[in-house]
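BUG: 3D viewer hangs when loading the predicted structure for this chain

Environment: internal workstation, default settings.
Expected: structure renders.
Actual: progress bar stalls at 90%.

Input used:
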Amino acid sequence: MHSATIRKLLLATTLGTLGLAACSTEAASDDTGDGESEVNSFKPGCEAKTLAPYALGGTIITPTGAKQGYVVVQGEKIGSIVTDKKQIPADVKVVETGGIISPGMVDLHNHVAYNFLPLWNSGKRFQNRYQWARIDEYDTVVKTPYNAVKNAKHQCDGVKYGELRAIVGGTTTIQGSVDLACTRSWTRNVEFVNFCEDHIRQDVLPINGISADDAKELNAQFDSGATKAFFVHLAEGIDDLSRNEFEQLRGLDLLKPQVVGIHSTALNDVQLQEMGHIGMKIVWSPLSNLILYGKTTNIPVALKAGVKVALAPDWTPSGDANVLGELKVADRVNKERFGGLLTDQQLFEMATKNPSEIAGLDDKIGTIATGKYADLLVIKGDVKNPYRAIIDAKPQDVLLSTVGGDVFYGDPTIVKGTGSAREFETVDACGTPRLLGVKEADTRIPEGTKALADIVGTMKNDGAKDIVPLFDCSRDQFEFAFK
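Structure tokens produced before the viewer hung:
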């Protein structure tokens, strides 16, 4: 949506066993020269963390269904999944969560640096994404406060706040963070080095900005396996201008299995069927689609065609707080517009398993299995209906969020029970106390030691007076999207 260049994205060089150099993100060209924008050497997933082992007891959602048991976390990974407490090693702390243990949510479309901004209701509907970005009100409500923070060289505060809003909803991996040195510490960031590899590319500019040379280089990366997924805003809108972007991709020879269409709202049945035949994927953001265009992607046709779909909230100016919130929108759209076609499990997998597969990270995250990284979410709810419980979960129902076994958020008793050495502060999750690991002790993370109040205060002093709360405790503000 904003300034970036695909040419920067494609000028990656091989770094031995580290794969390709991290690509630029949506605001990378804006940030050059900020002082914040120089990327440091810290690469999560390349350096093993030393963490105390612990086991979480509850109802575990595994690839074969839900079962009672314990997830044993050893270091950054799931060491084992056992059904009997006696099978847990004696030196491992055991925490009975009483909840539903789920893989962490994977968000494949966001603009994280904007996620301190509140929801924007323009009172209008648009035909395509180029229209709303050009009106004066968008500049006033969105760009002006965003630029105030960025120009004050405090964009790390915006990124950190956006990632914390994701973490408290159980999102452990996110797409769309700005490539700053501080963007290496809370959620995993899809575009950058993860697990000592970098196989993701993205472009947020119009497709007509992709040159023939760019497309040729992308196809070479697809063929070599250097790029497993290329995320591109595709047909975001409801008009012929938006729809024609699919044909622009065809002209560039970029109708390929590695191409992931963000939104794809305007695509017709024939185009969706072709996507399925090719093996292309879609990232679906229903709330943002409804708010801006009054319609959303034809997911039933896409699924029938075999298109793999992931669910993501887009950003706070026109989307939900996090994937857990967006699940509720998808569920309502399914009931009111899709005739209840999607099952609870399908919706759940659009937030976990599907996006991990789309990003080529399914051997590491997205499901709970021995040997995978312990990116986990624990929810309080009806253990007999775990998928429904997660869809319906309110902010105060989130009991724990971990990334690579590292505890970042949760119920005080559960957090303390894991033996986490992280420093936490108490936050109010809609009337329920929770612990949040706001501060980052690693000295390589710029401004990592800032407390939550300091982050908010800094952005307000910069001129962003209206900061969205960390938690959405009411969903009434989203009702206009369904009218």
